[in-house]
Amino acid sequence: MAILIKNGTLVTAAEQYQADLLIDGERITAQGSGLPVSADTQILNAAGKYVLPGGVDAHVHLDLPMFGTVSSDDHYTGTKAAAFGGTTTVIDFVSHDQRPLTACIEDLMEKAGPKAAVDFGFHMNITHWDDQVAKELPGLLSNGISSIKVFSAYNGRLRLQDGEIFQVLRKAGENGILTMLHAENGDVIDLLTSEIKAQGHTQPIWHARSHPNWGAVEAVLRGAALAAQAKAPLYIVHMNVAGEVDQLTYAREHGIKVLGETCPQYLFFSEEDLERPDGAKWVCSPPMRKKVDNARLWQGVMNGEIQVVATDHCPFFYDGTKPILFEGKPVAIPGKELGAGDFTKIPNGLPGVGDRLPILWTYGVGQGKISPSRFVDLCSTTPARIFGLYPRKGCLSPGSDADIVIWDPECQVKYGVQTAQHRTDYNLYEGWALQGMPETVFLRGKIIVQHNQWLGKPGMGKFLSRDPFSYQN
What we know:
It is a single chain. The protein is an alpha/beta fold. The protein has helices spanning 77-84, 101-112, 131-136, 162-174, 186-198, 205-209, 213-230, 242-253, 264-268, 271-274, 291-303, 356-365, 372-386; strands at residues 3-6, 9-11, 16-18, 20-24, 27-32, 42-45, 50-53, 55-57, 65-66, 69-70, 87-94, 119-125, 147-151, 178-182, 234-239, 258-262, 308-309, 324-326, 329-331, 404-414, 433-443, 446-450, 453-454. The chain is globular, with a radius of gyration of 21 Å. The two termini are 39 Å apart. The model has no long low-confidence stretch (mean pLDDT 97).
């Protein structure tokens, strides 16, 4: 059955305008006024509402093992939460071990495929480098993966040395694959962490103090320099420091193809939150910084220096000894209590995949910092373009997937753990007053959320085979 969305204001990354939108099957088939419809066409009246492309979250971690436990959202619960927040596409990360890359990909596909309730793709972590990995890397494209991630931190686990990162960049760039970088200085982090623990410091705030700002700043510049020498594109994930934005802009002004992402937590929270009695809730890597960093990141979001807002969604229970109810069943998963008395044992990560759009709308669009079109650009269109999904995703044009959000700008909620749908026991934005929420969410033409009712199901999400990197900006 065809569906006609009438009388809404369509918002794209470039403009907003009054038009109707016709859906037939999984695709948008027409937009305009006076569209011809059949007698059995379902009509939805979106008067007074915005009609947006579904959100694309290019940075999530679902069902991720860490510190003897696992992140509390799996590929069903996390994608359900995404849908309630207006996000219809997520990109997760394939962990890299000593097996062939295809074996690692198959493992994650087996976990994600039967559970995902929205469409999903994968990035491939590259955490060791040898001739065999170099030989396998171009084959990622045949597996639908056109982006990889490297780390300049996490010594002995995930980190590659600079020469290895250079080789990865060069090989990836030659094959139309985008390299993503977690930019911190692993050597300094390890040294400071050892010294801090020897001094007897255990509180969550010391997580931030063991990850100095300047380590991130110099790692961004170092990454950009390696990308320039490799003649390859680079994408900096979860930028959280003012100086990172400065270095990103410097590199781009010098013709280096470097792109930047930040996350809502780095726009709203600071080290002060880590000093709270429940500061473990805010422990993530990289950590919260200072309010001056919040302000500079906002500036980058507003003026286009930063290209994408993602989430780095990786939630854990605050107290995993106490079960919560999820879909009527008790669930308890060991979480941040594992680090009581030792900040190095607190699982690093936060909930956020369902919070991103409502929070950024209220405090970005609602406060006049960004326009509705910039909101769509940051959260849907540009991530789709960068990661080889456009115009299938991030777009309201005929032929695009009918991933659509009817957005109610007048809906007011007191937000928090009971509103968000993450499978965890806390929310960073507890008690915040929000205005603007998804009313109806479509995934490829099917309504999966309507008036806060869940109509989706596990397994209805499709794996997205992505095009080679070709973004020009």
